[in-house]
């Protein structure tokens, strides 16, 4: 018969084997739980990415709707305000500009793409000649009138050019035109520059990028 000592040794071996088996089950269960958590985490991350993409698209759609609304408002304002081509003004002989006569003012509208490279505020060489022609007409025909120089941009947000926003860009561009007109002899005391940024878009982005030189006839 097996001695008592041998019985105790056999029982101990069995118990140790049981404990080892139990620990192995626990480890496997933990590994399975870990793997399940990794899968769940990946699924949640995918859901988060989809939610962020949907939010970005919603924001883009919102901006585009606002831009369309502003363009529509700008068109309605333009239609409501009586205007016609200036009848007797030397501005009409300047190529590449649009001249509009409103109640109490004459506006020379110069496309921004004619004046500046994208995102820049340095006048193109050809633009300098155009503005010199504008200054000549102002000196000859409107020597005592106040001159308001208005800068406008399209609704695209600033991304790479380094300006804080479209308002700053429009201000810098109107200031550049102001300086050139001053260099051509127009008294700076009767000129001032203003920037409107993207707030008054026209029919297209190209049309929205512009500088308007307004001769104030009635103050």
From TrEMBL:
Pfam families: OmpA
InterPro entries: Bact_OuterMem_StrucFunc (IPR050330), OmpA-like (IPR006665), OmpA-like_sf (IPR036737)
Keywords, ordered alphabetically: Cell projection, Cilium, Flagellum, Membrane
Domain OmpA-like, residue spans: 103-219
Segments of this protein annotated with the region Disordered: 72-93
Name by which UniProt lists this protein: Flagellar motor protein MotB
């Amino acid at each position: 018969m097996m001695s008592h000592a041998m019985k105790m040794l056999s029982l101990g071996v069995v118990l140790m084997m049981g404990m080892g088996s139990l620990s192995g089950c626990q480890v496997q269960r933990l590994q399975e739980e870990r793997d399940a958590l990794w899968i769940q985490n990946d699924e949640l991350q995918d859901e988060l990415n989809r939610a962020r993409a949907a939010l970005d698209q919603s924001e883009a759609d919102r901006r585009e709707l606002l831009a369309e609304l502003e363009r529509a408002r700008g068109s309605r304002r333009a239609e409501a305000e009586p205007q016609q081509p200036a009848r007797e003004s030397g501005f009409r002989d300047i190529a590449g500009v649009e001249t509009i006569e409103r109640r109490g003012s004459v506006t020379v509208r110069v496309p921004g793409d004619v004046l500046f490279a994208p995102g820049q505020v340095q006048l193109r060489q050809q633009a300098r000649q155009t503005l010199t022609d504008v200054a000549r007409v102002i000196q000859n025909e409107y020597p005592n009138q106040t001159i308001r120089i208005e800068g406008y941009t399209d609704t695209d947000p600033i991304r790479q050019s380094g300006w804080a926003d479209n308002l700053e860009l429009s201000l810098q561009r109107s200031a550049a035109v102001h300086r050139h007109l001053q260099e051509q002899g127009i008294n700076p005391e009767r000129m001032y520059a203003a920037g409107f940024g993207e707030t008054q878009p026209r029919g297209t982005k190209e049309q929205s990028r512009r500088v308007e030189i307004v001769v104030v006839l009635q103050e």
